[in-house]
Prior knowledge:
This protein is 21% helix and 21% strand. It has helices at 56-62, 105-110, 281-291, 298-308, 312-319, 329-342, 398-401, 438-445, 448-462, 467-474, 478-494, 540-554, 600-603, and strands spanning 3-4, 22-24, 29-32, 52-53, 71-74, 86-89, 93-95, 102-104, 133-134, 137-140, 146-147, 190-194, 204-208, 214-216, 224-226, 236-237, 240-241, 249-254, 262-269, 352-357, 365-384, 410-411, 421-436, 505-511, 516-523. Residues 162-171 have low confidence and may be disordered.
Amino acid sequence: MAEKVEHGRSKLISNYGGIGSVIDTIDCSIIIESFDNWHYPSYFDKELNQYIIIDDRLLNRLKARFPLLKQIVSIPTEDGFEVQPQANIFPKWFYCPRCKRFMHYNDWKNHWQDRNNFNIQCFNPECKGEHLEQVRFVMTCDNGHIQDLPWNFWNNRKPVDETKDSAASDEENSPKIVLKYEKCCEEQQLIYEISNENTDLSGIRIKCKKCGKSESLKGIFNFQQKCSGQKYWLGFQNGSFVKEECDEKTTVKIKSSNSIYYANSLSSLWIPEKQSLELDIDLRTEIDAIINDPDFEPKDLEKFARRNGVDIQLINNYLDNHTDEYVTELLYRKSEYEYFITKQQPEDKKIRFRQIEVKNQLLGFEKLVKIDKLKKTTVQTSFTRNEPIDVDSILVGDTEYVKNYNVKRQSLSKNNFETRVLPAVESYGEGILFILDKKLLNEWESNELIINRANIIKQHGLSSEWKSHQIEAARITPRKILIHTLAHLLIREFEYICGYPMSSLQERLYVDNTMNGFLISAYDGTDGYLGGLSKLCNNIENLNKIIQSALNRAKNCSLDPICYESEGQGIAQLNLAACHSCTLLPETSCEHGNLFLDRKLVIDEEFGYFSTLI
């Protein structure tokens, strides 16, 4: 049975609660089900209007991968009734801490059929309703599937010598585990024993009360088996959970490990010029309903156009608006960057901004864009397990994708990439777009010392085991490391100034040969934000002091000189002088997983961009 989920809306399109992810609740862990099971109305039903998000620029970009996509729909609020995120319990195996009984969820539930509601409690009267504990181990494969370990076979193994590989297979010096894949006895009754003295995995044993066969969990992370192709996030179909054929090997992970789920999400800032504002939500769903009528005739659209005073060509453009053209993240952001630095405040009420020239007032910068109102739409398209992918591989075609990655992108929908809708979160907020001094930046990044230092990070990235690191490292430049690190330092400083915690502030980088800026923004649901961030632009002299304070603070890391002189730290050694004490942010604030950072490029007295300011 699917369970309703009470979870933050933004988390439902993130690494911490997206479709297919495993999250902890008060009672147990659950896996979030496909939005197909959330009971959204049909894409041409008027009842869907309350959920539709209009962002034609984003919609058109998504159609390169989702050719039948018609609507982007909002994640429902927790007080919604008809549409609610659904989930099912996973992992499926539980044990009683008191009597040690260890069974599959369905077996526990069957024992409660003639009693009161099953609330994940032990049925043994002596246990007095003891709450069951869930196993913390799962198995995942590169194709994105997830499954339980074969616990009912765990205590029935082949002898080590039968495996023809008695040598140690990992750093725990444990032998290879090979199961017989049959129960230890006909009347198997498993118990889950945890030693009070031995806290290692060898202190946890799976034992049969009937035959006495017992095995510990020592070496569990060596265990592999053929994947069963389970897709629990798609829910039930024909009486069982959805699955597919898979030839990959599964490996054991802790259920709370970050590596079991990576959400592939894209975000878009609202640009009025890129929207078809003449067609509102009501008109769009009515057009779709006309097209889906079994008795549809082309003249029906003409009648609709005349009745509503809409140009028929506009309707045809809406219906034919399919593109196979793939838009890179860099090109997509360039349109945002150019809009904010070249355009004036539009009539559109969803956005409010103005440019401020600061070249002679704010050293190191040439322009600020004070954004008092900002709309952002974030949509999740798929997910991977075991390894993340880079942002430009999220929408790229399969032929190009498999050249770079072995991990498969799993769809959020039963309809795979032919879905008609995708869930998203629409947020309103505020921000400041910082534009660095182009002339000063060009002179700075031509320094041989700076180029060589950036190449250290590049080489570390190219040597990483993860392909996403290799791809990002191949296009890393001193300019990007500088701007990325500077954004981190300012976010850390703004926490003390503007009323937002670091976790509520986000960076958005605009970096290439023609872009040299970064946006720091804050969002609060759909209609509220504090206003303390954009107001910093009202007093440039004070903002200058805040920036200088951030740079001075960056010179004093509690881990210096170890951090400052580091030749590589963090995942894959992709940071230099940057650690949690001086530079890193909450994961929700950083676009690059707190990687590709080096405060030396910002503040070093010899070659730092701001060396003359501090």
